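Escalated from tier 1: zinc ion holo job.
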Amino acid sequence: MTRTLLRGRILTFHADPAESEDNHRYIEDGAILIDDGLILAVGPYAGLRVEGVAEIDHRPNLILPGFIDPHIHFPQVQVIASWGTQLLDWLNRYTFPEESRYSDIGHAERMAGAFLDQLVAHGTTTACAFASAHAASAEALFAAAATRDMALIAGKVMMDRNAPEGARDTAQSGYDESKALIARWHGKGRLRYAITPRFAITSSPEQLKLAGALAGEHPDLHVQTHLSENLAEIAYTLELFPGARDYLDVYEGVGLLGPRTLMGHCLHLEPREIARMAETGTRAIFCPTSNLFLGSGLFDAQGLRAAGVVSGVATDVGGGTSYSLLQTLNEGYKVLQLRGQNMHPLAAFYWATRGNAIALGLEERIGTIAPGRDADLVVLDCRATPAMRLRAERIETLAEELFLLQILGDDRAVAETYIAGRPMKRAIAG
Ligand code: GUN
Ligand code: ZN
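Tier 2 regenerated the structure:
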């Protein structure tokens, strides 16, 4: 078995900086010993160097746990940066027609490779992704992730109404195809399946019931959907489900809430919805670049935290405008400024790594650099561009360096990305 020793400035979080003073570990001249895709040891370089072990020296760059993106749409790689609309028009004008193309397996395969290459280029090592309604699109994505040994979570969207025929399934085919994909891919290598009803508007009550049944049959699976993103979306949802107490109740009534359920957006929640999310452990996912781009609203990070709701932070490409978690944290910082709330750089990097791992319930495997964990890592260079180099001359603290990366950084600041111990970014570039 070949072991590798990575040398660099190591930063990892073991607690939330918003809750605990003792929250991170920083090693100025550190090393990570990797064996067979796992972290064997982490500590000062002087204590870990061994004759005969291959070394990769990343100094003076920072090595962090790989970024985790808990909400992203794979078939929107050619939707990102589509002009001029808010959510429902954007879906109808750009997104649904584009997703119709993913019935073509050749197209889905080409885009799956391109999509995962973008994640790696931006330092993202795990994503929770929506595929299109076609089983073939999820097949293509899982197959591409398997060849890269990525810890990917994904599911084909279930959507049987209020979309063009080519973008839809049926209540029964959505259930049957999801079931077949679960059998084929869930638990294979590092892959996991997420039950993926797109959102209330595009699923009939019958389909939502079947999604709930599927979740009941597979309680270890994630569920991903959207909640309370846009005011017109909320009004239409309540028209379609006149018996529901509120938007969340549409999902609650069919048994879709719980700590494995990820709700994208959560911008305009009623007090009852917030209380039920906290009671059930249902996760809220903040998607700042998308919320600004689609003019959807401002996430209340502090309010949800105070109510006991666990949140993640995600790109939501292609409503979101960047694959970069750094750029996502940049826009997230500005959204919270408009809310009169603050995001400290340590809290920001915690959120994109261990915080998102906790939102996904996968913190025992990913999101932290520690012995026994998966060797998914990102190497960050705070001097990656001329503007960053200039600003870096004035940096005195780790927090300042992180904030520079957060505000000015993007894929250019990602010097390398390790998936299960293998360097992947330079391999793609080269
Ligand atoms: N709501 C339902 N589908 C989508 C989608 O693809 N993107 C976003 N941002 N919101 C949605
Ligand atoms: Zn989304």
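Residues 59 and 69 are 26 Å apart (CA to CA).
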